[in-house]
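dumping this here so i dont lose it
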């Protein structure tokens, strides 16, 4: 076997070709054969005990869904150096977004979170809990951290000392509503993310198109797919058109002024029963 062939050979192949060849069995070659045996054994030990570094963000393409394992997702999730990344995982497909939040994204995210609080103030007899950007996981299969996460009712996640700070959807209920602020991610928010949230069983999903100044709302159907809707189911009877108008108003005013306008609008709705 040539030196080039040895570089790509397995330990077993080295043993069979170098150590058990007819030449190695000639009289006087016992010492060489013993040396060869221990050399190959050492190679096998190194191969069995070698450790490889955990995958890093640099090992993965950004803002594109690509095939990988749940273990790779966990390694990225748990890497303390990955403070400015967002991950999504859906049955063997991973998506990564890096970088700090931009001004437009931050302004719209705060505005829509304010909408949820304004709505809650209008409905004091209901319990609303917001967990925007908290990581939702269905261990082993799916994960994402939506910009908006809303629970309605008293059965909402409550962190206990010693527990994970993520929301394990095998231990906690499904949220009533999630939403994505789509500044640079509109295509995947309307496609792969929509399929992911439908598979998680989330009843309502909003995509807020920052640049297009429009809101897409979807309600989950009995067959497990999303259908466009004109009024919210989670926030009963809220016209989605008001959310789109709010984005248009944001082009000429602050998000706090738009939140005040939104409060005035919902005051015109029929009083909650």
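and the seq i came up w/
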């Amino acid at each position: 076997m040539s030196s080039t062939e040895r570089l790509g050979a397995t330990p077993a192949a080295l043993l069979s070709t170098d150590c058990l060849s007819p030449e190695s069995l000639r009289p006087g070659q016992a010492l060489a054969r013993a040396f060869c045996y221990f050399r190959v054994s050492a190679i096998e030990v190194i191969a069995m005990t070698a450790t490889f570094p955990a995958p890093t963000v640099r090992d993965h393409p950004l803002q594109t869904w690509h095939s990988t394992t749940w273990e790779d997702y966990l390694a990225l999730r748990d890497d303390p150096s990955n403070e400015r990344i967002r991950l999504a995982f859906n049955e063997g497909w991973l998506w990564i977004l890096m970088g700090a939040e931009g001004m437009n994204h931050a302004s719209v995210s705060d505005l829509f979170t304010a909408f949820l609080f304004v709505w809650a103030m209008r409905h004091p007899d209901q319990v609303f809990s917001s967990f925007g950007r908290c990581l939702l996981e269905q261990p082993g299969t799916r994960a994402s951290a939506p910009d908006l996460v809303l629970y309605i009712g008293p059965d909402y996640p409550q962190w206990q000392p010693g527990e994970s700070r993520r929301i394990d959807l095998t231990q906690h209920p499904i949220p009533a509503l999630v939403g994505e602020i789509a500044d640079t991610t509109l295509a995947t928010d309307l496609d792969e993310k929509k399929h992911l949230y439908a598979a998680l069983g989330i009843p309502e999903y909003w995509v807020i198109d920052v640049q297009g100044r429009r809101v897409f709302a979807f309600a989950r159907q009995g067959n497990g797919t999303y259908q466009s809707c004109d009024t919210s189911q989670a926030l009963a009877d809220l016209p989605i058109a008001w959310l789109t108008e709010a984005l248009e108003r944001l082009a000429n005013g602050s998000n706090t002024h738009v939140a005040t306008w939104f409060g005035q609008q919902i005051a015109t709705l029929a009083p909650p029963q």
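The radius of gyration is 28 Å.
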